[in-house]
Amino acid sequence: MGSFQGELLKNIVGLLPEYDFEKIAVDINEKALRKNKIADSTLVSNLNSLPIENKSVDLTLTRYTLHWNEWETQEKIISEIKRVTKKFAIVQIAGCTKKDEQDYWAQMKKLFSGEIPILKRKHSFWCSDETLEEEFRKQKINFKKVEELRIPQVSENIIFKYSLKENEARRVREILGKKDYVIRITYVLFFG
User: Fold this and answer.
1) What is the pTM of this model?
2) Contact 179/103 with Cβ under 8 angstroms?
3) Which residues, including other chains, have CB under 8 Å from residue 73's CB and lie 6 or more apart?
């Protein structure tokens, strides 16, 4: 889910050559999906209403997709993961600590407001592990946090990914200031 061009899927399949997975890449970005050469099939769809049958997928994988949606949409995406997945899901988020959640969200909202046009996002919500875990419990999903890693200088990744000009790069660093990091958190969700 949120497969984009298949970068993560390619890495996972490469680590597990002894398994023969049927790989379905799902993303709203049709252009990116056309570049996804690792998937057996692609599906252009919003993640909050998947045209996939109930409990028809053994493993669902989503990485860095939740925060690009408003909180209400994130709740629906989690519900869709629960609906379509038979066995387990791996959910990786880019988030923050509970103590920093409001300040961090404000910084990210400012960063993606459109001041730097290429970074403009209409919808997003960056949350903490605690907020996400509350939602898992609300939806009665068994989960285990398997990784929590603070990644510093997220500004440099953004600058590189979007090939920002020097003045844009300087502004990204200014906006993020002391919040120039992301906490990568990985969960395994268990179903059935």
Assistant:
1) 0.89
2) yes
3) 48, 123
